[in-house]
C-alpha cells in the first residue's frame, strides 16, 4: 500500500511503482480475458463492493488501482494496488491533477458523483478527456444499480432528456430486478464504515467527508430509528390499508428525502423537507378539494434522524386539516403511487414510480426525469394551488418508452450489498468498461488504415 499526504516525491514514487507493476502485468491481473486498460477506483458504497469490483476487474486483465481516503475505505479494500490518500481539499486537487496527467487511467469509477472528492475528480478528468463512470443506487429498484457517464441524477447526461420518438419499444418483456432485500446489510456495513471512519480518521482527511455527524448522536438516531420502526408498525399498516380501501386516487403522496442526500444540495434549488411540508400543507388547507388527503412518507433511513412527525401534526392542527393529513414511514412506495391522485417531490427518484404508474407528478428541483412532457417542472417555484387539480400525465407509450430507455442507458442489474447481487453488478460493470474499450480500439484501427483497406476490414 502506498501512503500519500501532499508530498510530491511520494506521488512520483506511486507513479513509478504503478508503471513497474503495469509493465510486469500486475501478477494475477493477467488471468481471464485479456483487456488492456487502467482503471482507477475512488470511493464506493459502504461495504466490500469496490473490493470485489477491483478483484473482478483484475481477473478480467485490467490494471486496477484504488484510492482510499480514510480508515473506513481501507477496511473494505484490497491490500494490493492501493493508494492511501491522507490530505485535504487542496492536496487532493494538486495530487490528482499530477497523478492523472502521469498515469493516464482509461476510466475512473466512483460512487456518488457529488461527493467532495468526486466533484474534483470529475472536473479534472473532464479537462483531460478521461472517462468517468458514476455509480449510484438504482433509479429503478429493486435489483438495479445506476451506472452513468460523468454524473448521476441532476448531473446525469440524461437529465431532462427524452429518447428519440423513433425509438421502438423492446419486443421482450421488461427485465424485472431481483429483490435482494439489502437494507439490513447496507445498514450493517454503514454502521461499521462510519464508526471506523469517525474513530480513526485524523487531520485533513476529514475535509473530504461526504457526510458529517457526531458519532454518539448518530448512534442515538439509529437506535431511535429501530424503535420507531417497530413501535409504529401497526399504525403504519392501518393508515396504508385505509388509504387503499377508502381513498383510492383521492390522496396526494409526498415522499420526503434523506436530508444528507446529495440530491438535497444544489439540485434541490433551496428546498428541504421542512419547507416542503409547511408550504404544501398551507396550500392543501387553502386550495385542495375537501374530499382529498395529503400523505407524507418519511424515508426509512431518515426515520430516526428527524422529528417530522411532531412538526407535521402541529402544522396540520394549526391549519385545521389534521383529519385529512397522514404520516407513514414504511410501506411500498410503488403500491401507494399506483393508488395516489398525484405525487409531489423535490427531486427524489420516487418520481419515476409516479411516471410508471401514470399519475400527475410535481418535481420542484432538478432531477433526471425533470422534463415537461413527463412531469410538472417547477424549477424551484412550485404552484401547489394549481397542482391539486392537475391532470397532466404523459401518454402510456411515451412513459413506457422513457422508462425502457432509462433502464437500458443508465442501469445495470445487481446490488451493492448482497453477495449474489454484487457478483451480477460486477459483471455488468465489466461489460460497460469492456464495450467502451473495444469501441475505442475499433475506432483507432479504422482511422489508421486506408479507405480501401477499411472497407475490407469491415467485411
UniProtKB/TrEMBL annotation:
Lineage: superkingdom: Bacteria
InterPro entries given in the database record: Capsule_polysaccharide_synth
Family annotation (Pfam families): Capsule_synth (PF05159)
Stated name of the protein: Capsular polysaccharide export protein
Organism for this UniProt entry: Oceanobacter antarcticus
Amino acid at each position: 500500500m502506498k501512503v500519500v499526504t501532499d508530498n510530491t516525491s511520494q506521488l512520483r514514487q506511486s507513479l513509478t511503482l504503478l508503471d513497474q507493476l503495469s509493465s510486469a502485468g500486475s501478477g494475477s491481473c493477467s488471468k481471464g480475458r485479456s483487456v488492456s486498460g487502467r482503471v482507477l477506483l475512488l470511493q464506493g458504497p459502504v461495504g466490500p463492493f469496490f473490493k470485489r469490483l477491483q478483484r473482478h476487474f483484475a481477473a478480467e486483465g485490467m490494471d486496477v488501482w484504488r484510492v482510499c481516503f480514510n480508515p473506513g475505505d481501507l477496511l473494505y479494500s484490497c491490500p494490493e494496488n492501493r493508494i492511501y490518500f491522507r490530505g485535504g481539499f487542496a492536496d487532493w486537487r494538486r495530487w490528482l491533477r499530477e497523478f492523472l496527467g502521469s498515469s493516464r487511467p482509461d476510466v475512473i469509477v466512483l460512487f456518488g458523483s457529488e461527493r467532495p472528492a468526486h466533484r474534483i475528480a470529475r472536473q479534472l478528468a473532464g479537462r483531460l478527456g478521461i472517462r468517468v463512470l458514476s455509480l449510484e443506487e438504482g433509479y429503478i429498484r429493486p435489483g438495479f444499480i445506476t451506472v452513468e457517464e460523468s454524473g448521476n441524477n441532476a448531473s446525469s447526461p440524461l437529465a431532462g432528456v427524452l429518447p428519440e420518438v423513433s425509438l421502438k419499444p423492446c419486443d421482450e418483456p421488461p427485465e424485472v430486478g431481483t429483490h435482494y432485500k439489502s437494507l439490513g446489510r447496507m445498514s450493517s456495513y454503514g454502521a461499521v464504515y462510519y464508526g471506523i471512519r469517525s474513530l480513526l480518521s485524523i487531520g485533513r482527511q476529514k475535509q473530504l467527508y461526504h457526510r458529517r455527524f457526531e458519532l454518539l448522536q448518530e448512534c442515538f438516531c439509529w437506535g431511535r430509528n429501530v424503535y420507531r420502526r417497530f413501535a409504529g408498525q401497526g399504525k403504519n399498516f392501518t393508515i396504508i390499508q385505509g388509504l387503499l380501501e377508502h381513498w383510492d386516487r383521492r390522496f396526494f403522496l409526498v415522499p420526503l428525502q434523506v436530508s444528507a442526500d446529495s440530491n438535497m444540495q444544489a439540485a434541490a434549488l433551496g428546498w428541504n423537507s421542512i419547507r416542503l411540508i409547511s408550504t404544501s400543507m398551507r396550500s392543501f388547507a387553502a386550495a385542495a378539494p375537501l374530499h382529498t388527503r395529503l400523505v407524507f412518507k418519511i424515508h426509512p433511513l431518515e426515520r430516526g434522524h428527524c422529528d417530522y412527525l411532531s412538526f407535521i401534526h402541529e402544522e396540520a392542527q394549526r391549519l385545521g386539516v389534521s383529519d385529512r393529513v397522514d404520516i407513514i414511514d414504511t410501506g411500498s412506495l410503488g403500491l401507494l403511487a399506483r393508488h395516489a391522485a398525484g405525487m409531489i417531490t423535490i427531486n427524489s427518484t420516487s418520481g419515476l414510480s409516479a411516471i410508471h404508474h401514470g399519475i400527475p407528478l410535481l418535481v420542484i428541483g432538478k432531477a433526471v426525469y425533470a422534463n415537461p412532457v413527463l412531469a410538472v417542472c417547477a424549477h424551484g417555484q412550485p404552484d401547489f394551488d394549481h397542482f391539486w387539480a392537475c391532470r397532466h400525465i404523459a401518454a402510456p407509450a411515451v412513459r413506457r418508452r422513457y422508462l425502457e430507455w432509462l433502464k437500458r442507458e443508465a442501469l445495470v442489474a445487481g446490488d451493492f450489498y448482497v453477495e449474489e447481487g454484487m457478483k451480477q453488478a460486477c459483471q455488468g460493470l465489466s461489460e460497460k468498461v469492456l464495450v467502451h474499450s473495444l469501441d475505442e480500439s475499433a475506432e483507432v484501427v479504422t482511422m489508421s488504415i486506408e479507405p480501401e483497406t477499411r472497407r475490407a476490414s469491415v467485411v
